[in-house]
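Students often ask why inverse folding is considered easier than folding. One informal answer: many sequences map to the same fold, so there is more than one right answer. In these notes we will look at a single instance of the problem. The structure comes first.
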């Protein structure tokens, strides 16, 4: 019926202008972070990915957001008071206000709404874990809940999540994958006809049971601010000498990843996840100008994980985001073998000995 989700939500927005008078309300959501297995790196147009990506949604690393809102007819007035960990936070407030202004074309009632948003993360403030995926995921879910409360729309779960994913993407690309539990796919690929650049979709119905209980232990190597932000890194892909080759490679990797996830091929999965992580960092190294986010301790733990894997023959998989931290993925049945290795041989290379033990999660939860 519509050519794109953009057309669909702009069209539907015509009906989202006038709820009954003066409606106050509340909503609250917890949304997890996610770890990409096939990496999104580089953008085209506005918040569209240069390539498709696949991720696993986490369980413990979440943003908790509550929104008090008051809709008032009359002159347009969108206002926001934003509190992070119970304190006013002007930088986040400006970023979220700009975001709300932008998404009000899909949610016109926002232009008549006063919002008080309170948010905190369940993971340590400076653990080097990106919070944009969980926070924009949580905010987008809260906005869809407001729409549902005010207009009685989005009553079908699939419609609700689709719109939340679309809106989350506009705040932070990786956030669109976090609105689903388990495994998600974002970005157009011929290998999965329902895929789109405008929102993520769930892969859970095709995932082999071997992957349903994967753990992710995050080795916190460095908690300092990154020398180059992810936004700047994405921009450097625009004139990257290897961008075209990366897009060809990642389309092929995506196809393979879908096959491995469906067939339960853990060994091939492991090699591919690692290739994706190293390629992401290779893109950074070979950007113009190039930069390095890995630290000496990142390399040390990578070396030790590979040695442990060679010696033990266990599927201990490593990956990285755009930062110095190293994630170890492994099936839950190996907990008793891998945790002692991490505590005994890797913790000393982590800042303050910090390792965050997380695992695949069921997705966001509404608590208000
Ligand atoms: C390396 O989603 O943080 O984690 O869209 O600019 O907010 P923005 O970027 P962001 O990029 C994440 C990149 C990555 C890989 C991934 O999550 O797929």
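Output (designed amino acids):
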């Amino acid at each position: 019926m519509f050519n794109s989700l953009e057309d669909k939500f702009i069209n539907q927005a015509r009906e989202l202008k006038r709820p009954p008078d003066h409606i106050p309300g509340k909503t609250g959501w917890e949304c997890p972070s996610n770890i990409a297995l096939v990496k999104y790196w580089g953008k085209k147009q506005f918040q569209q990915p240069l390539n498709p990506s696949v991720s696993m949604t986490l369980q413990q690393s979440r943003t908790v957001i509550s929104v008090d809102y008051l809709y008032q007819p009359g002159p347009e007035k969108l206002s926001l008071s934003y509190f992070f960990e119970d304190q006013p936070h002007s930088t986040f407030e400006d970023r979220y206000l700009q975001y709300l202004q932008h998404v009000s074309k899909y949610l016109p009632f926002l232009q008549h709404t006063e919002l008080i948003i309170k948010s905190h993360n369940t993971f340590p403030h400076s653990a080097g874990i990106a919070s944009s995926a969980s926070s924009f995921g949580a905010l987008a879910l809260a906005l869809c809940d407001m729409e549902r409360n005010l207009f009685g729309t989005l009553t079908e779960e699939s419609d609700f999540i689709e719109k939340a994913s679309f809106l989350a993407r506009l705040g932070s690309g990786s956030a669109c994958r976090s609105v689903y539990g388990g495994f998600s796919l974002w970005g157009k690929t011929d290998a999965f006809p329902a895929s789109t650049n405008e929102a993520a979709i769930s892969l859970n119905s095709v995932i082999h049971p071997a992957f349903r209980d994967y753990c992710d232990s995050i080795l916190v190597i460095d908690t300092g601010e990154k020398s180059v932000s992810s936004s700047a890194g994405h921009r450097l892909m625009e004139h990257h000498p290897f961008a075209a080759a990366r897009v060809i490679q990642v389309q092929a990797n995506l196809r393979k990843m879908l096959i491995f996830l469906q067939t339960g091929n853990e060994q091939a999965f492991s090699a591919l996840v690692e290739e994706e992580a190293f390629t992401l960092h290779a893109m950074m190294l070979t950007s113009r100008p190039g930069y390095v986010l890995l630290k000496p301790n990142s390399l040390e733990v990578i070396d030790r994980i590979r040695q442990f894997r060679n010696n033990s023959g266990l599927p201990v998989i490593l990956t990285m985001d755009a930062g110095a931290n190293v994630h170890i993925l492994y099936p839950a049945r190996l907990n008793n073998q891998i945790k002692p290795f991490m505590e005994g041989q890797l913790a000393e290379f982590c800042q303050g000995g910090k390792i965050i033990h997380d695992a695949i999660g069921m997705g966001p939860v509404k608590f208000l």
